[in-house]
Specification:
This protein is mainly α and about 250 residues long. It has helices spanning about 5-40, 50-60, 70-85, 90-115, 120-130, 145-170, 175-190, 190-215, 230-240. The protein contains 9 helices and no strands. The two termini are about 15 Å apart. It has one domain (about 5-245).
C-alpha cells in the first residue's frame, strides 16, 4: 500500500476525529438556542445549516491536533496498513478494506468523544460492504450472505432495544450501534456477529472494572457509555488481527 495513501488517510482520520466532535457540539448548542427562543416566540426557528463550502474550508484549513486520539489513530492505521500489505495482494479489495478500517477507526474515536455513531459514516460503510459482494473481483462470500449479515446485525438488537425501552422507559442501546453491527455483518458475514457482540460486552465489562481498579472517575452503572469503541475493538481482534477473516 502506497506510503502517501496511508499518510493521507492518517491525516484525514485525525482531522475528522477532532473536527466532527466540535461540529456536533456547535450543532447541539444551535438547537438548544432555537428551543430556548421558541419558549419566547412559541415557534422553533430551525437553525440554518452551514454551507458545504464553508464546512469544506473549515475542515481542510487546519491541521490535526497532537493528542492521544491522533496518536491512537496513527498507530492503528499503521498497523492495519501493514497487515493488509503483508497478507493481501494489491488491488481493489485491499483498497476497500483499508477504507473500511479507516472508517471504523474514525467511528470509534468519534463515539468515544461524543457518544454518537454518525449516519454519515455508518451508512456508507454498510452500503460499501454490500457493494463489495456484487463485483466478482471483490466478492468473498456473496451478496445473499452479506444482506443476511446486515439484517441480523440490525433487527435482533433493534427488537431488544425496543423491549428494553418498554420495560425501563429509556434507551439502552443506540441505533448507531445497530447500524455499525449491520455494516460489520455486510462485510464479514452473519457468523461474525455473535463473536463480536459477546467480545464487545466482555471488553466493556473489563474496561469498566479496570477503571474502578485504577480509581478513576468512571461514574455508576447507570451512566451512559459509548459501546461503539468496544464493538470495533472486538471486531478488529476477530477480523483484522487474523487477516484470513477478510478473505
Amino acid at each position: 500500500m502506497a506510503l502517501g495513501v496511508v499518510c493521507g488517510a492518517m491525516w484525514l482520520v485525525c482531522r475528522a476525529a477532532a473536527w466532527l466532535p466540535a461540529y456536533y457540539a456547535r450543532e447541539e448548542q444551535a438547537w438548544i438556542a432555537a428551543v430556548q427562543n421558541a419558549a419566547r416566540d412559541s415557534e422553533i426557528q430551525h437553525p440554518e445549516p452551514p454551507r458545504i463550502g464553508v464546512l469544506w474550508r473549515e475542515f481542510f484549513t487546519a491541521a490535526p491536533p497532537l493528542n492521544r486520539w491522533t496518536l491512537i489513530a496513527v498507530l492503528v492505521i499503521g498497523f492495519v496498513a501493514t497487515r493488509l500489505w503483508l497478507n493481501m495482494p494489491p488491488g481493489w479489495p485491499m483498497a476497500a478494506w483499508f477504507l473500511y478500517a479507516c472508517g471504523l477507526i474514525l467511528l470509534a474515536l468519534v463515539d468515544q468523544q461524543t457518544k454518537l455513531l454518525p449516519d454519515v459514516l455508518t451508512i456508507p460503510l454498510l452500503w460499501l460492504g454490500l457493494l463489495m459482494q456484487i463485483f466478482p473481483e471483490t466478492a468473498s462470500f456473496g451478496l445473499e450472505l452479506a444482506v443476511i449479515g446486515a439484517v441480523l446485525g440490525y433487527v435482533p438488537l433493534w427488537l431488544l432495544a425496543q423491549a428494553y425501552r418498554l420495560i425501563r422507559g429509556r434507551d439502552g442501546l443506540g441505533m448507531g450501534d445497530l447500524k455499525l453491527l449491520a455494516a460489520m455483518g455486510a462485510w464479514s458475514g452473519p457468523w461474525v456477529l455473535p463473536q463480536v457482540t459477546f467480545g464487545a460486552a466482555l471488553l466493556a465489562i473489563l474496561g469498566f472494572l479496570l477503571e474502578r481498579l485504577l480509581r478513576r472517575r468512571c461514574g455508576g452503572l447507570q451512566e451512559e457509555r459509548p459501546f461503539g469503541p468496544w464493538l470495533i475493538l472486538a471486531y478488529g481482534l476477530i477480523v483484522f488481527t487474523p487477516i484470513s477473516g477478510m478473505a
